[in-house]
Predict the structure.
Amino acid sequence: MSIRVLIVDDEPLARQRIRGLLRDDPEIDIAGECADGREAVVAIREQSPDLLFLDVQMPVLDGFGVLEAVGVDCMPAVVFVTAYDRYAIRAFEVHALDYLLKPFDRERFAKALQRAKAQLARDASHAALPLTGLLDEVKSGRKPAERLVVKSAGRVFFVRIEEIDWIEAAGNYLRLHCGCETHLLRETMNSLETRLDTEKFLRIHRSTMVNIERIKEMQPWFHGDYVVILQDGTQLPLSRSYRQKLHELFGKLF
C-alpha cells in the first residue's frame, strides 16, 4: 500500500527538492503541494494524507498554526522542515516524529523518511500523538528568538535580533532595518511579534515594530498621535491604538 505524502513549504525550490527526493520511491504517492499554511489546512482536511513534510516558518499561517487549525488528533504523521532556533529543535527532538534542519542532505532525508515509514507501519493512528506535547511546549515555553534566518538569492543570512533597529511590513514580507543594511524576511508582523522579546521590541503601529533600545525621544504629532524618533534620526509614527503598550513600559508620561 502506498503512502500518500503532502509537501508544505512556501519556497518553490524547497518543495522541488523534497519532491525530487521522493520521486523514485515506489512506496510514495505525492498527494499534492501547498505553498502556505492555509492551503495546507484545506489539503489535509480534503485529502487525508498519511505523511506531511511541513515547513515551520511560513507567512500568514506557520507550521504550528497548521497544527492548531487542523487539530493534532486529525493530523497525519509529520516530518518538520525547519531553520528554527535551538529551543524549537530541542522540542522537535522530544515530541516530533522527526525533523529536517535546513539545509539537509539526501542521507538525512532518507533517514527521516525511513523513520516515518516505520512509524506508519507500526500504528498509523498513533503517528501524530506526540504533536500535542510539541505544540504545548513550543507555545508555553519557547524562548524569544536570538536570531532570524533570512534567505536571499539562494543565500542564507543570520541576523541577530540585537542588530535590528526597527521592522516594517512590506507586502508579504517584513523589512528589517539594521544600521545601513536592510533584509527582507518572509513572515507576518503578528507571527514575528510572538517570537520577539516584548521587553526589547515594541509594536508602535500595525505595520511597525521598533527596538526599544534605539528610541531617542517622542514628539507629539497630529490628532493625538506621536512620532517616535530613533537614535539615527528615523521618525516613525506611533499609532494611538498602540500607545497603551508604551504606558505600560514607561508609565503614563504623555
